[in-house]
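Posted in: Structural Biology > Protein-Ligand Complexes

Title: Requesting predicted complex, arginine in pocket

I'd be grateful if someone could produce the 3D structure tokens for the following input. Sequence and ligand are given below.
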Amino acid sequence: MKLWSGRFSKDVDSEVNDFNSSISFDGRLYKEDIEGSLAHAKMLGDCGIINRNESDKIISALNDLLKDIDAGKINFSVDAEDIHMNIETLLTERIGDSGKRLHTARSRNDQVALDIRLYMRKQTEEIITALRSLISEIIDKAKQTTDYVMPAYTHLQRAQPVTFAHYIMAYTWMLLRDISRFEDCKTRMNFSPLGAGALATTTYSIDREQTAQLLGFDGICENSIDAVSDRDFLIEFAAAASLTAMHLSRFSEEIILWCSSEFGFITLDDAYSTGSSIMPQKKNPDIAELVRGKTGRVYGSLFTLLTMMKGLPLAYNKDMQEDKEAVFNICDTLLMCLKIFTPMLKTMTINKKTLRAAAAKGFINATDCADYLVKKGVPFRDAYKSVGCLVRLCEETGKTLEDLTLEEYKTVSLLFEKDIYDAVNLENCVKERKVSGGPAPEAVLKQIKKAEAELNRKEHEK
Ligand code: ARG
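-- Reply #1 --
Done. Output follows.
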């Protein structure tokens, strides 16, 4: 029999029963549901809304129930519809009428809004922790590769020389911004909807501040209608997660390219690659490809949430039950991706020689060659043209700028002297870019220090 069966003259159709039920996915909220009920029961007792003995009885039975669920001793029932009614039914089976008093001055509408906030607060923390580990790993790799010269690209064409350290540090800053977004989202999430009831609070003199404080919130949701109908914090979370997924996807794309024979910049550890069922020579970057592929799920869930909410009149509507699978999908996907990406990065080998060889091709020191002339007084546009001629000469003769003889240099400008070879030396090209935020080893070391300070500051603020 349903908890709400009093008003109805017959049982619900069995397919409707299944369709309506959310226990298959909201069962994972059992801890938060009990945590919320513990606070609610204590407050009801403290405010004299239920008798102290009953409140104590409820609290101790809820704690026992939590232990039993944790130990896998409880099977939830589809008939009890959702986690809230499952817990209430189980409680009532154990302590009878006292169990039935728990729902005084509460509705499933404020209850579910509470549970999902409590759950997402923890998940957001976990994601932040996983992001921190990934960032530390990138920084570690960067420290080892400040002198690994490589080409950086625009339009996927070799452009200018940088180092591997500088290249991957770009991802550190993206991920640090991601942490800020998740933290920011957590601050707005951290207000208690409990006590809003179905939508208009209650006539009992409950203490919303007390439950908010017991549950570690920064305050209460100030409008009871908003409290039960707001899912902005889930959408913000999904948007932050989408950016993180996009960052991981871009990084994955680089890794996939880098481990191809065409690039050969890195070698993935065997434990983080897979073989082919037919081609014995294959070693595939499946992990990076899956991380890239799973981005679609995260974006999809963001759109599920945005679309679900856009036409809902205030306050609670059952459509909102759909929020859970969407955010759970994001949490599971993102955490899994972060947890596998970090060791994949940790165990990969960076091929210094191949990076250096790629840097030697593609005339990525052409800008430096032009700057050489500029420093001797030639206007940049003219220098640019002269070096263009040199590049054409190189292409015709199969040479690099480093290979050209001084005579060949002098065919385009008499200002070229022997020191041009220092100017186009790739290590020097990198070393000279020592402006803040640049690829020179000394600049990158400063950048790493700043990133570490940022990471520590974030740890401190937690
Ligand atoms: N299972 C529901 C959900 O996830 C809980 C709230 C139900 N409230 C209601 N009035 N039907 O949204």
